[in-house]
Amino acid sequence: MVFEVQPPKLCSKRPGLPEQRSGVPVLLRAERIPRPGKETALRTSNVFNGYVAETLVQYRLLSFGFNVFPCTGQSEYDLIAEIGGIFVRIQVKSALPEKKRRGRARYNFLPTRGLKKVAYSDGEVDVFAFVARDLERVVFRVAHDTGKSAIHMMPEDFSKEIEKHSLEKAISDLLLSLR
């Protein structure tokens, strides 16, 4: 049995539309909306930036071979990763670089939650994942090493080698603290 495919029928001429030539409809061009620059796109809402950072951390952990699960609702942590048979609670923090007096950029992270900047209690989070949003890099640290004050990092702290090494160190420190 052979089926014959019919070409799509062209719409009849409607007022206001360009003419069709050789049976091919002329597509109307939408007006181009100027795209924001990378800097503008990065400075959107905190919720959106948090979601992007969580997705990046989840991707990194998956690429390193770990099972990762996002948390929903009002949890104290953003992700759960199965590492060495242990479920690790991961809180993701992200930042853009801020220029300081001498022109050097640095990233400032607050290991706190909410608008009231409430510190995490011991045992609520196992690992912090600090994300440099413009570099799309992650540094991992065990939660008990972070303390309650701001954490400052430089762009060179976010190299690919440091990213993987920081995860390995955070995992080994966490496993040692559990013994």
What is the gist of this entry?
The protein has 179 residues and is of the alpha+beta class. The protein is built from four helices and ten strands.
Any overview of this molecule?
This protein is an alpha+beta fold and 179 residues long. The chain has a domain at 38-96 and 121-147 and 155-178: Trna Endonuclease, Chain: A, domain 1. The protein is 26% helix and 25% strand. It has 4 helices and 10 strands, in the order ααβββββββββαβα. It has helices at 38-42, 46-63, 143-146, 160-178, and strands at residues 67-70, 79-83, 86-95, 98-99, 105-109, 112-113, 118-119, 127-132, 137-142, 151-153. The longest helix has 19 residues, at 160-178.
Write a concise keyword list for the protein shown above:
25% strand; 4 helices; 26% helix; Trna Endonuclease, Chain: A, domain 1; 179 residues; 3-stranded antiparallel beta sheet; globular; 10 strands; alpha+beta; 5-stranded mixed beta sheet
